[in-house]
Amino acid sequence: MSVGRPEKPLAPDAGPATAFALELRRLRVAAGSPSYRELARRALFSASVLSDAAAGHRLPTLQVALAFAEACGGDRAVWERRWRAAAGRAGDGPGPAVKPAQQAPEPRLRAAAVRALLPVPAQLPMEPRPLAGRARELGEARALTAAGAGPVPPLVIHGPTGVGKSALALRLAHELAADLPDGQLYVSLGAAADGRKDAPGIAGGMLRSLGIAPELIPDDPAQRIGLYRSVLYERRLLVVLDGTLQERQVRDLLVATPHSRIVVTARSRLLGLDGVRRLALPVLGRDESMDLLAGIVGAERLAGAPRAGLLLAEACGDLPLALTLAGRRLAARPEVFLAEAVAELLATDGLSGRLRVGDESLTERYEDAYRRLTPWARLLLHRFAATGAAPAVDGVIRTPATALAHAPEPPQAPQEPVETVEDVLEAVVDSGLLERTDVPGQYGLPPLVRQFALARAAATADGPEPAWHRPRSDRPAPGAAHPFPAMTQETPA
């Protein structure tokens, strides 16, 4: 038998709390009388909390009782029924009801050695702006995260740069938080993290946020991930992993659980992840764009110049971030007529570069995505942006991939793998700079991305084209005579 913390004297009142504590003691004896220190390692509650649970002075919380019972090999469902009977909540147990107010506040905080010191984590940031025009997508997200017959898989919200993925995720998270009382955990994995945060480090930070004592968090990365998953499975937690760049950042942090919920945002679809649910977030409809502008510049001001609002929404490609930044610039000049202010903002083709307010910049978002592209993907983006002056055939501008096919053969580099045009296109789509259209095999370039790409192409015009393998295509696109996918100049609103 293990030697550890001595057993506290059993309370003499013989009420429901004492009777329940006596059952816990008998279960511990049947399990071989493990020490409370050993139980603490299994249950993730401190030895003093577990010892108090078996003393009978007050009824432990349900979480403590279940952790104690499972650490001793007890059946979770059986012990939950026993606890509810003792608490008088099931109506079929002996003894008077024990109100939650009679319990010490310490166990409520769900932490191990420092539960009385740490609050329940509530790490969700403030929603960045009012969520306009996302009723359908929010309804889908609710349905994809709703409780079902079994564990609920993580939800991945993906879409183009600036489309409002984080805003939707936070709106959803604040709604889910009401039913997840054990805490909300938020981790930013975007450009600032630059991919340096690894899953074991993130898991360790979240475990510490939940109040688990450092000595109970394993040093071994695999065991730390395992402990994190166990906590998510047992508790009612919300985890938001925002701005994910690569699958490897979050793969080990994802788990389907019946109680907790995990929400991930990313520009990419993160196709390397299995067992997740995905929600694609498109740009706004035109009416939704007008609602967003009205919320920023004022409904009366916009109603006085509706055509100016429509022109701005079209120039912004109905992109929520672009509309928000433009709206803030307009709202900062209330003394200027809206039509005049919009005309000034749209006076040149450099709108994308002018969408900067404080430290928020659309161009910086595009730059971050652009830096992560391969040289071939950048070249394709430049060629696609340049097709704005090219004649259209049947309403579809020829793909820049076609131009790549007829360009002089670049120097070969046998050590480099051959990239197909489809692979390059998919990489640009997953960067958030290119969109699919409703027509299979066709892609669209948002107007602000085109402005950005033209500026980047002009900045590198004097440099040599990348000496990589020419992208190849293994199969023709549906309905296209040429073996490369077709593209449209802009995505329809």
Strand content: 5-15%
Can you give the mean pLDDT?
Answer: 78
Strands across the major sheet, in which order?
Answer: 2-3-4-1-5
Shape type: elongated
- Give start-end ranges of low-pLDDT stretches: 1-5, 89-117, 389-417, 462-493
Count, helices: 21
Kindly report how far apart the N and C termini lie: 72 Å
Alpha-carbon Rg, integer: 29 Å
Q: What is the tally of beta strands?
A: 12
Classify the helix fraction into a percent range.
Answer: 40-55%
Structural class: alpha/beta
| Largest sheet, strands/sense/barrel | 5 strands, parallel
Give a brief description:
The model is unreliable at 1-5, 89-117, 389-417 and 462-493 (pLDDT under 50).
List the helices and strands and how they pair.
Blueprint: H1 16-30, H2 36-43, H3 47-53, H4 62-71, H5 76-87, H6 135-144, E1 155-158, H7 165-176, E2 184-188, H8 199-209, H9 221-234, E3 238-244, H10 247-250, E4 261-266, E5 277-280, H11 286-297, H12 299-303, H13 306-315, H14 320-331, H15 338-345, H16 351-354, E6 356-357, E7 360-361, H17 362-371, H18 375-386, E8 392-393, E9 396-397, H19 400-406, H20 421-430, E10 435-436, E11 442-444, H21 447-459, E12 486-488
Parallel strand pairs: 1-4, 1-5, 2-3, 3-4, 11-12
Antiparallel strand pairs: 6-7, 8-9, 10-11
